[in-house]
Amino acid sequence: MHTLYPAIKPYSEFFVAVSSLHRLSVSQSGNPKGVPVVVLHGGPGGARSQRLSQFFDPQRYRIILFDQRGCGQSLPYGELKENDASALIDDIDKIRQSLNIEKWLVVGGSWGGQLALRYGFAYPARVSAFVLRSPFLGRKQDFHWRFCPDGGAAQIFPDHYQSFSERLPLDQRHEPIKGYQQLFETGHEFEQLNAARQWSIWKGGLSHLLPLKDAEQRFGHAQQSLALAKIESHYYSQHCFMPENHILDNIDKISHLSAIIVHGRYDMVCKLEGSQLLSKEWPNSQLQIIPGAGHSSSEPAVIDALIQACDKMVTWLY
User: Fold this and answer.
1) Which pLDDT tens digit goes with each residue over 238-249?
2) Annotated catalytic residue 91
3) Residue 108: C-alpha distances to residues 21, 29, 79, 137, 218 (Å)
4) Which residues partner with 109 through β-bridges?
5) What domains appear along the chain, each with residue ranges and CATH number?
6) Catalytic: 297?
7) Of the listed 41, 134, 295, 296, which one is catalytic?
8) Does the annotation mark 110 as catalytic?
9) Could you report the per-residue pLDDT of 167-212, keeping only the tens digit for each?
10) How much is the average pLDDT of 75-92?
11) Among residues 57, 67, 142, 267, which one is catalytic?
């Protein structure tokens, strides 16, 4: 079984101004002359981790990581103004242009997988191929599955869902995304921090095949979770700023490009059914269903599958 490549430090770190308000933090690792790959972190509202570079052979890949608007080290932190999906998609290409890259491999997981696909729809000539982990299709049923009291996740983890939903008034529990967004907009600071903490614990706790015993400690840091929860609820309340079924309806724009899709069979965050539909509509894609795995990229079987996928792609592209 493949394990992560050794940890490496970036050889370059800088900011790219993508608007008069937003500056994105970008890093490069690996071989400056290698196959360029851009890695799109999860969220919305997450942040890059240097650990993401360890899925790629540093001798053969030029690895580009960055924090999306309002995330991680990008500035201003937690900002919702000028923060929507079309802006993020254009940001990716602004980074590509700043680095003088003609085409790159686009890699993303969960929300990053959706963003990768939408970038491909807008800039297909700039993509050499895709590697996607559990892409989030952002359909009504996907939000319902993860957040609603009669959704799949709540039925499998009713005890954890109770902790997530009981912070909301009874009349808002049937639409928890809107209820949480209202807390983030109108609640006082203590309410916002506690709401963000619970939001992050619910999502983080679902990400692993077996619920983490230390989920509260791992995901419950209120200050760090506030930006993620506010940005995520901002995007989700707007259905990720796209029409229903947008991903599947536009897959023909990239159907000529190759893709490997990795999805844990027991993923509670992003439905496996979505990736199966995606692969059926995408003749040049290959879906790998990972047994004994959930959503997280830190699970051994998912690590193994992603590294094999990235090694296969670099051998083909090199």
Assistant:
1) 999 999 999 999
2) no
3) 25, 17, 22, 13, 22
4) 133
5) 12-137+242-317 (3.40.50.1820), 140-240 (no CATH)
6) no
7) 295
8) yes
9) 898 899 999 999 999 998 888 888 888 888 899 889 888 998 876 6
10) 97
11) 267
